[in-house]
Amino acid sequence: MLYRNLLAKALESRREEFLRFDKSWRESVTDYCERLRGLSGLSSEEVRARAELARISSGALPSTELDSAGSMVVPFGKSWATHEEARGWAMDALASRVTFAADGSQLTPGKELSLPVAVVQVAWFENPHSREHSYEKQARSEIVSPEELLSGADERIKADTVVDLHRFRLEIEETARFLEKKRGWEERKERTPVAFLDGTLLISIALPRTRIQDAYVNSLVRLVNLSREMRVPLVGFIDQSYARDLVRLLDVLKGRSSSQQERQNLSIYDAQFLHAEVAGAPPILERWGTRTSFCYSLREGFEDESGKPLIGFTYLQTTGEGLPARLDVPAWVYEAGLLDDVVDAVRAECIVGLGYPYAIETADAAAVISQRERAEFLRVVQEFADRERLTFGLSRKSTSKVRRR
């Protein structure tokens, strides 16, 4: 039981610490906002030159979109009086455009099952936005066997991590299948298709590296390379991003060392300061639909054969008041001149999905495994064990629950 009066007293006893933190946080956010605005008028080459002088990885570098926009903010030139008007625009932006999303879930029984086994499920939603063709919503399930769960595992890798990776690989497989399917869309005079991945296309590598980390990086790099080969755009959508790529870039441009960066920016992330209202000034991404200029990511392991960044990102304001979403996008999409069209597709999906891409929302709903379905999974596993006369099964308590449900 949580005692409200004791909690209130505990908070009050640390009041001064909270006030100091809030004051420091506001000052830092104001500083980052001013420095990002200060990049207006600079060219991408000037920013790159300054970052290289620091001899510290800046984490990200602005593309030439900074030159054409003249600012780190790319405005969205449309507004509507009603949501119906916005939906009308979204329907036009999506008409005859194929969008795709895959999402997954998993179930890892605990001590109620005496043998290590798990199930992963991935669902996908492909929407042609056309009266001539119906949408496709399907799912597939796979068992993660004891050998897969335990083989090669070490003390740093838990079974849940192995299951997470298995689910992730299925999501990547289905997304790759869509990319291959849509190859040649330009020759067929189709609208730009867009594949959504629910999450980042970039991960940071913690040292010492593990085989699981390598597997994630390798899977993402292969998917991005396939997107480039098929020329089908891919978007990693992060609704609540804690990335600090812009924070790190601004720190490097200010001449801060890596240790100073760690002390200063741990409590501040990009999406936070991009939507903060400070010193009476409106947020950098104030209006719905505005975004940041495309930046290249310098994350380790995500380079092409020549050492150039494979992936970049932009922050997009997809709600009226919430923090902006982060879009991870293969660099080739920007370089091919497709970014504006792709971002319009994201905006339209978010209008239909009320702030979140409808395609991802639908795939997620199809993939989720409920608590009732957990009981069904245990029942099926028990029946399989009985039929095959396997020397494992459910605890008596779980067996009783399965029989009664």
Largest sheet: 9 strands, mixed
Q: What is the succession of H and E elements?
A: HHHEHEHEEEHHEHEHHHEEEEHHHHH
Radius of gyration equals: 24 Å
Order of the strands making up the biggest sheet: 1-9-10-11-7-6-3-4-5
Q: What count of domains describes the coordinates?
A: 2
Count the beta strands.
11
- Note the beta-strand portion: 5-15%
Please explain how this structure is put together:
The chain folds into 2 domains: 23-369, no CATH class; 370-405, no CATH class. It has a 9-stranded mixed β-sheet with strand order 1-9-10-11-7-6-3-4-5. Strands 2-8 form a two-stranded antiparallel sheet. The chain has helices at 4-13, 15-37, 44-54, 65-69, 83-94, 146-150, 159-181, 211-230, 245-254, 258-265, 270-274, 331-335, 339-352, 358-367, 371-388, 396-404; strands at residues 60-62, 73-74, 99-107, 118-127, 136-144, 194-198, 234-238, 291-292, 295-297, 311-316, 325-330. It has 405 residues and is of the alpha+beta class. The two termini are 30 Å apart. It has 16 helices and 11 strands.
Notable characteristics:
disordered C terminus; 9-stranded mixed sheet; alpha+beta; 11 strands; two-stranded antiparallel ribbon; 405 residues; 46% helix
In short:
This protein is of the alpha+beta class and 405 residues long. The protein has two domains: 23-369, no CATH class; 370-405, no CATH class.
Please outline the helices and strands.
Elements: H1 4-13, H2 15-37, H3 44-54, E1 60-62, H4 65-69, E2 73-74, H5 83-94, E3 99-107, E4 118-127, E5 136-144, H6 146-150, H7 159-181, E6 194-198, H8 211-230, E7 234-238, H9 245-254, H10 258-265, H11 270-274, E8 291-292, E9 295-297, E10 311-316, E11 325-330, H12 331-335, H13 339-352, H14 358-367, H15 371-388, H16 396-404
Parallel strand pairs: 3-6, 6-7
Antiparallel strand pairs: 1-9, 2-8, 3-4, 4-5, 7-11, 9-10, 10-11
